[in-house]
Target: asparagine synthase (glutamine-hydrolyzing)
Amino acid sequence: MCGFVGFLTAGQWARDEVAPGLLERMAETIVHRGPDSAGYWHDAAGGIALGHRRLAIVELSPAGAQPMRSACGRYVMAFNGEIYNHLDLRRQLGTKEHSHPSPLAGGEDGNAGWRGHSDTETLLAGFSVWGLRATLERCVGMFAIAVWDKKERSLTLARDRLGEKPLYYGWQGQGADASLLFGSDLAALKAHPAFAADINRDALSLYMRHNAIAAPHSIYRGICKLQPGCLLTASLAQREPKIEAYWSLPQVALQGAATPFAGTEVEAVDALEALLKDAVRQQMMADVPLGAFLSGGIDSSTVVALMQAQSQRPVKTFTIGFNEQGYNEALHAKAVAHHLGTDHTELYVTPQQALDVIPKLPQLYSEPFSDSSQIPTFLVSQLARQQVTVSLSGDAGDELFAGYSRYLFTRNLWRKLESLPQSLRRLGAAGIQVLSPTSWNTLCKPVQPLLPASLRQSNMGDKLHKGAALLNARSVDELYLDLVTHWKPDDLVLGAIEPFTPLRGNPLSLTGLDEVQRMMVLDAVTYLPDDILCKVDRAAMGVSLETRVPFLDHRVVEFAWKLPQHLKLRGSVGKWALRQVLYRHVPREMIERPKMGFGVPLDEWLRGPLRDWAEDLLSESRLRQEGYFNPVPIRQKWNEHVSGKRNWQHHLWDVLMFQAWLTEY
Model:
């Protein structure tokens, strides 16, 4: 895994005496993504410049250095990611007529056949033989790519199917010096003199609703994220980027539901295990030490079990634990590790160790991001990096196999609500809100031990008040949007018009899918790439650790969508087929327990050790002076939280992470 930067311009920045130094300054901002080496290439006549920072994972020799030129001389590429089936692609390509020059950073002399065994070289050969799109359609992997076509004098940017790797782009500057900037991180684009750094208030409103900024938007006006599964082409002659999708998750979901797997349950579980096992096998390809994150939950335990089943030595696994009750999964992870025989490392994190991460977050994410599990994600990445350079993770199991409890909650609630007149629902909401959350907590406390474990809530009053807000929904889609919304930013972000997204105002065409399937698709195209994968990539790359996600092998994704829904949901339990795979390796009783998540006691920290820091960032005078937020609702939530009347930890963290980012940038 690596990082790259680049620009396309007809102006001064491409000149021979300017481009090399500028590229180096841009690339230095992402040295954490590639600490092993750097490479630079530019063509003043073409107006194109590419810079690359390398974290050597496969082909550690200079034969894997980038930017790299194709054997035919037509293409020059900077690449971030891994192509897991690249050796299969080489066999398809053969070696005839593939005399590959050295990477540009190391020279131009050619050799007969393949020069090394890097996937970068394989991709370039594929582009020469099959073309860019056809090559990417053959690839199994994660990637962000920038390719210069010397013949067409055009730039192509590409991003992997599910959005594991980041890729930003946008025109900046005026007149002759206008430049198309692109790269793996906003910090690199900011280092270019043409970068304007105008904050996009509309994107800020998206962030306040969902704690992350959804593609194609970014926090800066004029800068976009390339959406997953897309190719972008631009040139100096045709400056307006042309974007096309080469793979579509909604289409995969619709096709899978229309042509479901027709075998028996046992055959379905066999097929799923075989696909996952192959995905894990391919993703264990590395010339450096490799391990896995292990929480002890279904997803990470499945990945580790399939790794250990294919490894001749104990797999290195990593877990962090917290001493605070309700946040610690380390004991479960340790039990799974012991059963599987992994080489397990755990770290119990002190509050101070976790708090020390917070000042690093603005630089790690380079735009506002406020999923608070970013803290333990960074800590487990830091722990793993002490022993390995690559770590597999169990992300995406929930989106593929209906694992989130909110899916069933939303479906069941809507089926009850839609039978009631909206006037009656409004009356019910008003009735709930007559009592404060604290009063509801007092009333519910004697009843809590009598409820099933799945219904017990630490703060029932908060849940009831949020539920009251949901009663006014007019459709299941609107209900789900309300459920995953933090702030409704209408009167919060000053001067903003919230952009439409698949969750709001720009619905996907998902006719033929049931309510739960619709929510799974929406999560897979929004929450998964914009929050989960962003969180993992930035946290891990902050310590120069490559992460890989076997569940996002597109063959696994496509098969998962062919599984009938009853093979995912059984009663109130999700991930049925995935659980059956895991139970072949780990005893059921070791796994069956309520889902805990990967959180931190943020509510307590904001009332305790973080209180002075938060008070400074949330002061009314500061908010008014900066001019991005209406301070009234923010101060109200802060005062309620500090007093203990309400738990507004996630809402406040959204504001605090923007404020902390604003201070740095």
